[in-house]
Amino acid sequence: MTVGKPIRSREKTAGRDLNYPPLPEPLRVPVYDNHTHLEIEDGETGLDVREQLDRAARVGVRGVVQVGTDLATSRWSAALAASDPRVLAAVALHPNEAPRLAERGVLDEHISGIDELAAQPRVRAVGETGLDYFRTGEEGRGSQLYSFEQHIEIAQRHGLALQIHDRDAHEDVVATLLRVGAPERTVFHCYSGDEHLAAICAEHGWYLSFAGTVTFKTAAHLRASLRVVPRSLVLVETDAPFLTPMPHRGRPNSAYLIPHTVRQMALVLDADLDTLCEQIAHTTEQVYGRWDNE
Question: Between 97-104 and 141-158, two packed helices, what is the crossing angle to 10 degrees?
């Protein structure tokens, strides 16, 4: 495995603009990308990892959390974090992986592999884990739930943050966190709920991470959710190369496009941009620790 070279490729959907957008106006106060997938190459001419991180630094994105979705990408993420001070890692089996691994009889083996990676010093979160009822039917929910529970326990055992993937499964995600016991630092990655779920998260001190979706016209529920939670629980992410913020929706996404999302969040909150960035950066370091501290 060559660290820094993407190991997956995003499908080049017909009709999609495959050119990376230009750099936005830099932020005066730097922030962090709380969730990105540098392991996935995208675009007509893909950007390597170093170029993506360099571009991010030029516009005020100080560092990223690189997130694994299976054992191979989690190992890649941990290795990248160990080699580049601008990267921390999250490791996990995506909920949609759990049924496939269970069918092959290797789910526990792969969970053990995640547990081993979680002990590395630059691995600061277990994620993305959770429940996904959009892509997995009833027959796969049992293995998803088992995997989710095991990942919660791994995060607790290693004292790490937990990054939640929650798609069409809000009630069961919350119920599982309350039954098993949510880690002190639990993050709803790419928050997709409404004000009701946001209020539940706020009640329990769970963090909401907003992606480029908060800039979409159809996402009034996300903007409403952003308004009802304490700013001390707010994070920002790209989920790159997916969910590119307006005005570049559909094009390849990257950490350097975070300023578009943060500026929209400031408008929604009627907040001073620099103050909001300072708050987000402080909160991100509370969740994951400092990037320059082994």
Answer: 100
What pTM does this model have? 0.96
Distance (Å, whole) CA 98 – CA 91? 14
Q: What is the dihedral of CA 271, 249, 39, 149, to 10 degrees?
A: 70
pLDDT in tens, 26-53: 999 999 999 999 999 999 888 999 999 9
H or E element, residue 167 = strand 161-167
What's the sign of the alpha-carbon dihedral 36, 262, 30, 230?
negative
For the chain, the straight-line distance linking the first and the last C-alpha, in angstroms and rounded, comes to 23
Cα 108 to the chain's mean position, in Å? 24
Supply angle C-alpha 230, 260, 208, rounded to 5.
25
E strand map for 110-156: 123-132
For helices 107-117 and 141-158, give the axis angle rounded to 10 degrees: 20
Distance CA 227, CA 172 (A): 24
Strand partners, 66: 36, 89
Q: Which residues pair with 8 in a beta bridge?
A: 40
